[in-house]
Amino acid sequence: DAGITQSPRHKVTETGTPVTLRCHQTENHRYMYWYRQDPGHGLRLIHYSYGVKDTDKGEVSDGYSVSRSKTEDFLLTLESATSSQTSVYFCAISEVSKGTALHFGNGTRLTVT
Amino acid sequence: DAKTTQPTSMDCAEGRAANLPCNHSTISGNEYVYWYRQIHSQGPQYIIHGLKNNETNEMASLIITEDRKSSTLILPHATLRDTAVYYCIGPNSNSGYALNFGKGTSLLVTP
Questions:
Q1: Cα–Cα distances in Å, from B90 out to A12, A20, A41?
Q2: A41-70: buried (b, 16+ CB within 10 Å) or exposed (e) per residue?
Q3: How far apart are CA A65 and CA B41, in angstroms?
Q4: DSSP B44
């Protein structure tokens, strides 16, 4: 899948614990994104990055933070996980900002109990 | 944001053309329309995108109306493996880069 690896693929955690999801790319693409997917909502953008140390919020960013210290890695952190953050999380990358495809990873299924 | 409207679900017989419509009346003149699909719980897969002209690739054709208010994705010879949720997408106005995914059309290809 276009050189995108998400880890872990599955995780079960307890409410109140911190969780970090990792997205690693080997394509050297500038733009990286985190989406979550829930039944009835489709995919919703959490955060995105337009370069190293350059990130911004998406439509459902509350409760999440991100970091991008190098081109290939984009980390999504839930500082204190809640049950409402149970979801499937997808990372995506793109080479340029417009007129190009987003390529998605295979997702991380997170369950917060 | 560039909002899109798609039917919730469609059926298509195997071997026939699947024509998936999308209304995107709010999309501006310099914004692309993108189509993706998602099979089961896999990550969305890029299909095609266009700005003004019709586009064709190995997967599908995209027909965009002259006023750019709507488009149709055509899978010329649908197979059972084309059963998926198809998303017609415009850009996210906040980010300028990321895409706004709606709920898509669930396409069922039947034998």
A1: 33, 29, 16
A2: ebbbbbbbbbeeeebbbbebbeebebebee
A3: 24
A4: P
Q: Summarize pLDDT for A15-29 with one digit per residue, the tens.
A: 999 999 999 999 999
Q: Is A79 on the interface with B (CB under 8 A)?
A: no
Predicted confidence band of residue B98 (pLDDT cuts 50, 70, 90)? low
Alpha-carbon gap, residue B57 to A94, rounded angstroms: 19
Note the pLDDT of residue B1.
54
Distance from CA of A17 to the nearest CA of B (A): 26
Q: Which of B64, B101, B103 to mutate to test the interface with A (most CBs of A within 10 A)?
A: B101
What b/e sequence results for B15-30 when a residue is b if at least 16 CB atoms lie within 10 Å of its CB, and e otherwise? eeebebebbbeebeee
- Which among B11-20, B34-43, B65-74 has the top mean pLDDT? B11-20
